[in-house]
Write a structure and sequence with these properties.
16 helices, 9 strands, alpha/beta, TIM Barrel, two-stranded antiparallel ribbon
């Protein structure tokens, strides 16, 4: 089977020859290919080429077409984003101050707003370069809750959840409408899978009642908008300990759930069952960045053992790979999947 075939089978819960491996490589791909991170985030051909080249060199099954976590905020109009040459983009400060400001905001356009056109083109280029060999995941970060935290500023938005709930819901509704357009444009460009992250909705920051009121409905709204047009698989990533919200995550309409390394993978298997595909959760820092290939393989075997006998699992890192990660440790992940485990 090709990487694309293997991964799509895992999303459908169908038998396949081995567990797919798709680490969240991101900006590390630029470094591995000797390209500045800023160039990788602004040139669609470079972004696609770096990701495809890394997958072929290291042997894993699919790639994420992703620049950084500020693409959506920029497309909406957030003005305070910096783009260092050799580091990811970073935003700061607050912007949205009132419901009137939200109501006056036009929805961004995937054909002309910020870097959205570049990212959509990067998906198109990656699909063309990969052919039927590799799975192309179009990353439409950030999901509504995370985007609202960026536009309002994280601490202020957390206070809004308690002190200004109407304002919070209005901003989230706008963010869901905006993000939906971007995701649909990526599907139109041919992405095999769509992915988004709602990291600030983590159980490490908010409790289950807050997630149920302020994150879940808007994630679901985005996924329903996609489903009204495409049957493309969708995956949802939430950083940190998602044990407080993972059951609701499986009810958003997502096809797959990305599991952070802080989450107990055995709990994830119990909750996900055969409803959704679980993706993760080898430690991004330890062992993937700081360990040896043998330590990485040992951690992978533990993950494989948890999902022994399942057709709905993809071996991946718990979060985005650091550019400091030795490439041989990503090769070790592939080797572990190929070797399998005695329990599989």
């Amino acid at each position: 089977m090709t990487g694309k075939e293997r991964a799509l089978a895992a999303f459908r819960g169908e038998p396949h020859d081995r567990v797919p491996v798709i680490p969240l490589v991101g900006q590390a791909g630029a470094v591995y290919c000797g390209v500045a991170i800023r160039e990788h985030a602004h040139d669609p051909v470079t972004l696609a080429r770096c990701q495809i080249e890394c997958a072929r060199r290291m042997g894993y099954d699919g790639v994420y077409i992703s620049a950084d976590t500020w693409v959506n905020a920029e497309a909406v109009g957030f003005p305070n984003v910096e783009h260092p040459e050799h580091a990811p983009a970073c935003g700061h400060g607050t912007w949205i101050e009132s419901i009137e400001q939200i109501d006056a905001l036009p929805l961004p356009d995937p054909k002309r707003s910020g870097r959205w056109p570049l990212m959509v083109e990067a998906v198109r280029q990656a699909v063309k370069m990969a052919g039927d060999e590799l799975l192309i995941v179009g990353n439409f970060d950030q999901a509504p809750f995370d985007l609202a935290c960026q536009l309002r500023e994280l601490n202020r938005f957390m206070l809004d959840l308690v002190e200004n709930r109407e304002f919070a819901h209005r901003l989230l509704d706008y963010c869901a409408d905006a993000v939906s357009q971007y995701a649909i444009a990526m599907a139109e460009a041919g992405a095999h899978v769509l992915n988004t992250g709602d990291s600030a909705a983590s159980g490490s920051l908010i409790g289950p009642r807050m997630y149920a009121e302020f994150a879940f409905p808007y994630e679901k709204k985005v996924f329903q908008a996609i489903r009204s047009r495409f049957d493309t698989p969708i995956t949802l990533h939430i950083c940190g300990d998602s044990s407080t919200c993972i059951d609701l995550m499986t009810q958003t309409g997502a096809t797959g759930i990305e599991i952070d390394e802080l989450m107990d993978l055995a709990v994830a298997r119990t909750v996900c069952g055969d409803r959704v595909t679980a993706i993760g959760n080898v430690g991004t820092v330890d062992p993937v960045m700081r360990g040896t290939p043998e330590q990485v393989k040992a951690a992978c075997r533990e993950c494989l053992e948890v999902f022994a006998g399942s057709n709905r699992y993809i071996l991946a890192t718990g979060c985005a790979v650091s550019p400091l990660t030795p490439p041989e440790n990503l090769v070790a992940m592939v080797d572990a999947a190929r070797e399998g485990c005695q329990a599989c």
